Amino acid sequence: MHPPSRPARPTPNKTPAAAGLLLTPLGPVLTLCLCLFSASAVYAQAHFQELKPSPQPIHVRVQFKNNPANEAVVSWTTTRATSENKLYLSTDPKRGRLEEYPVHFASQHTFPFTLRDEEKKAGMHAWSHNVFLNDLKPATFYYLTVVSDGAASEEFHFKTAPDDERDIRILMVGDSRTPRRGRIDRENERRQVNALMAGLLETHPDIVAMLHGGDYTNHARWGEFYWWLKDHSETSTTSENRLLPVIPARGNHDVNPELLEYFWWPDRVRDFYYTSNLSGTTTLLVLNTEISRGGDQRQWLEEQLAKLRPLKRWLLVMQHQPNYPSARSYEAMAPIREAWVPLFERYGVDAVYESHDHTLKRTHPVYQGQINQERGLIYFGDGGGGVPQRRAGRDRWYLAVNERYHHVHLAKITGEEIHIQAISLDGQIVDDFKITLDRRALYLREQKELDSNQ
Ligand SMILES: [Fe+2]
Ligand SMILES: [Fe+2]
Questions:
Q1: Are residues 239 and 261 in the same domain?
Q2: How far apart are the CA of 384 and the centre of ligand 1, in A?
Q3: Could you say which ligand is closest to the alpha carbon of residue 218?
Q4: Residue 35 Cα, ligand 1 centroid: separation in angstroms?
Q5: Backbone φ and ψ of 256, nearest 5°
Q6: Looking at the structure, do residues 186 and 328 belong to the same domain, yes or no?
Q7: Which one of 33, 119, 330, 442 is most buried, counting C-beta atoms within 10 A?
Q8: Is residue 8 in some structural domain?
Q9: Per-block mean pLDDT, blocks of 10 residues, the chain (454 long)
Q10: Distance (Å, whole) CA 149 – CA 55
């Protein structure tokens, strides 16, 4: 692993001097106006950038959803409208020689990103191009070049997930928005965390994907997401141009409909909850804490757990707002906890990755509202992908670990255990734990007992 060097923090922009005016009776009003003006100027300067019209593909990226062994969406951006947008694909490198790729696909969904007025005025026009691939081979490298109106990207590659029982690794990160004041630092913490993940992908080629727990930017609008995509493609990609696929969840900062443009998928609906088969042994359930936790979503969750628990060795959950918060109020999260935790416990979910609270967190094993070392469930997260970290609340009964580190979680999943490590920006392992209980066997045994007693 090659942790990125840590640059000096940027100097905050200063409010213009107006000391004389501030002594007048209008001082407080003027101070407020100046602060608002300064903040919005910094925001605009930080987020908006005039994009020179060009067909040159940027933001080349891969997304996984239900079946990462066979399906992927490859997306890219151009900064002017283009009429011919193609993806060239091969299972061995062709180094951009287009005539040698055995297949190519036209973009199935090309559209202009939705812009706010201030983004239009700043000239941030951009178009999204997306190719849905649905006949891929498992555990296979795919090499690709994308071309818009004759302008070609570099060649990138990605690997599909396995569909057998081999060991895999996954990365988990959340809350990768940059500081509220804007994106004023080219080497901001998000880019540093991304570079850490790219280094981990180089060290561990069996990493399937980056699971993102939500809160990508402050408002999920183009003026901000442009930078998220730029940072992701520039700093999460390895030095050999291997792309790190994303499996996204939705956070409370991502409620604008534009999020569906940034993570386009043919059948994506605003509900944004789904399963993802990470391997033959492991399924991830992605939940959406930003819509009703009851109703359709809860019913879907129970149906999925009942179907999958007998089939899979490991069931993982990813959700944005936490069941067991590390910085916010425990009571405030009761509606989420009461909706889903009884199902996690009844069907034996193996671990829950959460975000939103902006700390490094791991709970003790918890079962039915108490610490239970035998069959308790560990909730971990809580969003260290770039957002400023909050003061940790170490005195809560359920918290085993709670610190303020930007971090990623790396999990190795084998037949016997899930070994999870949290890694800080300087490459140190700042948490390390294992999940070993065979909850599938436990569930099947208890179901058998229930049936025989009836
Ligand atoms: Fe957040
Ligand atoms: Fe959040």
A1: yes
A2: 9
A3: 1
A4: 24
A5: -65, 145
A6: yes
A7: 119
A8: no
A9: 36 32 46 50 72 98 98 98 98 98 98 96 97 98 98 98 98 87 72 96 98 95 94 96 98 95 93 97 98 96 98 98 95 96 98 97 97 97 93 85 95 98 97 98 94 85
A10: 6
